Every structure is written in structure tokens, then in C-alpha cells.
Amino acid sequence: MSMKEKLENIKAEVQKQVEAADVPEMLNDVRVKFLGKKGELTAVLKGMKDVAAEERPLVGQLVNETRAVIENMLDETKKMMETQLREERLKEEVIDVTLPSKKNKVGHRHPNTIALEEVERIFVGMGYEVMEGPEIEYDEYNFEKLNIPADHPAKDEQDTFYINDEIVLRTQTSPIQARVMEQGKLPIRMIAPGRVFRADEVDATHSPSFHQIEGLLIDKNVSLADLKGTLEIFAKELFGEDTKTKFRPHHFPFTEPSAEMDVSCFKCGGKGCRFCKGEGWIEILGCGMVHPHVLEMCGIDPEEYTGFAFGVGLERIALLKYEIDDMRLLYENDIRFLKQF
What we know:
It is found in: Cytoplasm. This protein has helices at 3-20, 24-35, 40-46, 56-92, 111-125, 139-142, 174-182, 224-239, 292-297, 314-321, 335-338, and strands spanning 129-130, 136-138, 167-169, 188-197, 209-219, 245-252, 255-264, 281-290, 306-313. A seven-stranded mixed β-sheet has the order 1-4-5-9-8-7-6, sandwiched between helices. A two-stranded antiparallel ribbon has the order 2-3. The chain has eleven helices and nine strands. α1 (3-20) packs antiparallel against α2 and α2 (24-35) runs antiparallel to α4. 40% of the residues lie in helices and 19% in strands. It is α+β, with helices and mostly antiparallel strands.
């Protein structure tokens, strides 16, 4: 069989296989079979050494023409197939432009975040700094430097998560106050928001992980009147100008004297309703004058400096301010709930 006949047979075979192909992938197989490194046309080129020298230019031209015909045949067929496939896909994927579009669901600020930003705005406006500290804390800072001795009930494992004898998950953000006082940069005006941990069962009003905001002011000639005035401004800014405050004697190890502060019910104006359980007042926070022993342990002279401290649960503020009746709703991250605020 002459070289020309071989080439004609290759073209005919390629055309036959191209016509039998029904997807572009099959055309790739044909291309490899005939034009690849081990393809049939390449094998013909390797046989050129057996062709007479004077016939090689003509045979070479025939081989190149055959390659061009095969490549053109494959490219045209592939374009035709892709066009047909695209038209079929467009018919199947018809878009009804009159249908409503899919709404892009975006996140929303959490009620805790909104409440925290409001509290920070109020106290920063009064000259306070926002301070942070570690959530994993030494027992010394979480308890000892706050005048809570080793035999105090708060140190029981039923109330506190212990990592070892010296390290706990902080039960309050008061350790930040102790760390700042130790630095000795006076006067101090600070609030310390953050996550805290206590061994509580999850229910409508408790969680093993929640958030607190603790405040501290240390300066010369600070009195209980300064504490009451500061917290009264805070309550009015947070709950409204008509809000009244009431202080009840209490006991905290790190303050003396100590008190709990109530605010008049912003739902009924103090008349008594279901929200305030008919009392007209709602407990909001604990506070007091910093205990002299706490000042001494943190390197501050209680004869020269005095101060006050207070602590409020961030979740409590959010629950009251937005009238949420179950604390667990704050942690479920349901966008239907969050977008209400």
C-alpha cells in the first residue's frame, strides 16, 4: 500500500469515528489516537525513512495536509457539539425573570452587643476607660486580692470551674480591677466588660457562661455620694430620664459599705406590674465603696485614696431593656429573634 493510500485510509477512519462521536470527550480520544505521540499519523511520519529521498518532500506535504484536514474536522465538530449542548442547556435552564429574587440574609448585631455599646458609651462619656483581661485567671486575682478568703463559699467547686488549685475560669471581671490597681497609675476610672464562668445549670435566668460589666473609680476624697450620683446618671441614660434609683444595704467581700441598686420599673413607672412582679422596682446591680483591705493588697494607701466599685450582668441589662423573658434566647443565634433589635 502506497503512502498516499495510507493517508487516505487514516482520513476516512477519522471521519468515521468523528461521525460516531456524540460528546466532546470522544473527539479528544480520536485526536489522541491519530495525532498523539503514539498516534497513527505519527507512525506514518516515522516511516518516512523508508521513502525514497526524491519523494520525501511530496510525502511530507501530504502528511501535513492530512493533519490539517483531521484537526479542522475535529475542531469544527467540537464547536458544533458545544453549540448544541449549550442550546439544550439553555432550554432546560429557562429563568423566569418575573419570579421574586432570593433575598441575601445578612447578620445582625446581638442584643448583648447593642447593650454593651450603650453602657460603654455612657461611661466613656463620664471619663471612664474600657479595660480587658484574661478569661483564665489566677485564684489570687479572682478571689484573694478581692478579699475572698480560702474558706469562702464562692470558692467551692460547685460554683467555680477550677483548672488546678491556682487557676480558674474567672467568675467575675473584678480581677481586671485588681490588675489595674496594682499598676499604681492613679486616679483610676474604668469599666471591665467580659465573659465570665460559673457552675450554673442552664435555665431561663442562668448559664455557665455569661457576661459582666464591672466598674471602678479610685481617687482622693471619693464618697458614697459619688457612687450614688454616678449610678443614677447611668440608670437614667440607660432606661430613661424618669428612672428612679434605690439603694439597699447588702454584703460583698470586696466593698464596705455595700449595696444593691434597684431602678423604678420602666414598664409601669413604679406603679407595679407583671414585669416588676408588682413591686414597682427592679434589681439591677451590686455596688459599694472599695474595701480598704482590697486597696492595701493592690498597693494603694487607703488613708489617701478611696473609691467605689459596681458590677452588673450584661445579659440582665439586655433582658430588662428589651423585655426578653428567657436568657437562652440570647445564645441560640436565631436570626428571626436577633433581627428584632
